[in-house]
Write a structure and sequence with these properties.
Strand order of the largest sheet: 3-2-1-4-5-6-7
CATH class of the largest domain: Alpha Beta
Number of strands: 13
Strand content: 15-25%
Distance between the termini: 22 Å
Shape: globular
Number of domains: 2
Oligomer: single chain
CATH architecture of the largest domain: 3-Layer(aba) Sandwich
Number of helices: 15
Length: 378
């Protein structure tokens, strides 16, 4: 780096970036788009699991999140430390996430840096230790925005001021699909029948029996000529279940193909892809958000409170999960839910479009706050 570049004030961004998770990468794409309207790309540094890919995808500087000495060396030049978005403070998979992001915030505060907790969803936090560390860390921020009412209520209970906004991906705009992807989508669109997307992921409360119930409900409710597009949003968590579903679907003589993701460079291209569907059946939050943003009706599998929150807000059908179920209870509930949803697709689409505009306005408040912070910091 040149001496001039070394003297530039920095915006340092931390989150679950560089892991190939579409939702988190979409949040990062929108955040960097907004930051580049205010500061030079060379002043934006993202802590990432895959710095080279982050640089290539988003046109900003990036360093490994696993090198704490590099992180510490950047803090003296950091004007603003942004922690978010997404669900960083949770202990559903253990305390390590809360410890990792909490310690970053505490170090930044110790060195006198300004902190922005950005569009986060807080929780679940079941253990006393995770709650205490999260409360201590989040209380250090000069500015806090959260993406759901439950997170806002929790921070209020902890006497931490926050603004209730929405997920930043509501503000993300489509970009053109790669040629190879466009060719696949055009081929799919040329076939008769509904075009239905399927997003699944591994989760402790979603078992093989429930997968079979989902297959049975979809098989009975979707017309025979339906074309199914399987959507791996994070390969290491999604492919196993999608492969199992595809095998069952094809054994029934039905059409199913995987979206070819190799040529996709940015999350905003996924928005263009999902906008071409007639219906999405999904677990992943950001698959649901991206579809709803384009007015595509969804049937959501509520494996997590954040998914239930969005589905409820948008008046979209919910497939509930029962812990340790053998699948029979779900099938009895899911069949009528899915039958009604497929019959009322157009009404669900209208509702999605109406709510998406409100969500976008709320989400854009994240960046209004960001602009005020950085303008005053100059």
């Amino acid at each position: 780096m040149s001496e001039k570049k070394n003297s530039q004030p920095l915006v340092l961004v931390s989150g679950y970036y560089g892991f190939g998770n579409l939702g988190d990468e979409a949040i990062l794409e929108e955040l960097t788009n907004e930051l580049k309207k205010i500061v030079s790309p060379s002043q934006i540094i993202v802590l990432s699991n895959d710095p080279e890919q982050t640089k290539k995808s988003f046109g900003v500087e990036s360093l490994s999140r696993w090198k704490p000495l590099d992180f510490l060396s950047l803090l003296p030049r950091t004007t603003l430390f942004i922690s978010g978005g997404g669900g960083l403070f949770q202990d559903a998979t253990g305390m390590k996430s809360t410890v990792f992001y909490g310690c970053q915030i505490l170090l930044a505060k110790f060195l006198g840096r300004k902190i922005y907790i950005y569009a986060q969803g807080i929780g679940p936090l079941r253990s006393g230790g995770a709650q205490a560390l999260a409360r201590l860390s989040l209380s250090q921020a000069a500015f806090t925005t959260v993406r759901d009412q439950d997170s806002h209520n929790l921070l209020s209970k902890w006497h931490i001021d926050s603004a209730l906004t929405a997920d930043p991906v509501w503000c993300l705009e489509q970009t053109a699909m790669p040629k190879a992807t466009q060719k696949q989508i055009d081929s799919l669109k040329g076939k008769p029948g509904l075009k239905v997307g399927l997003s699944l992921r591994t989760a402790p409360n979603f078992n093989d029996q429930q997968l079979l119930s989902l297959f049975s409900a979809m098989d009975q409710c979707l017309p025979p000529e339906t074309s199914l597009l399987l959507l791996p949003l994070q390969n290491n968590q999604d492919m196993e279940l999608l492969n199992k579903f595809a095998e069952m679907w094809r054994q029934k003589g039905r059409s199913a193909e995987f979206l070819q993701t190799e040529a996709i460079e940015r999350p905003s291209q996924w928005l263009a892809i999902l906008s071409q569907l007639d219906l999405l059946v999904g677990m992943r939050l950001h698959a649901l958000i991206m579809a709803l943003k384009s007015g595509i009706p969804v049937i959501g599998i509520a494996y997590d409170p954040k998914v239930r929150h969005v589905l409820t807000q948008f008046g979209q059908p919910i497939l509930n999960l029962t812990k340790d179920s053998d699948g029979s209870e779900e099938l009895g509930e899911w069949l009528p839910t899915m039958q009604t949803a497929t019959a009322t697709r157009h009404e669900l689409s209208v509702r999605a479009r109406e709510e998406a505009e409100s969500a976008k306005k709320l989400a854009c408040q994240n960046f209004e706050i960001l602009a005020r912070i950085l303008v005053h910091a100059k």
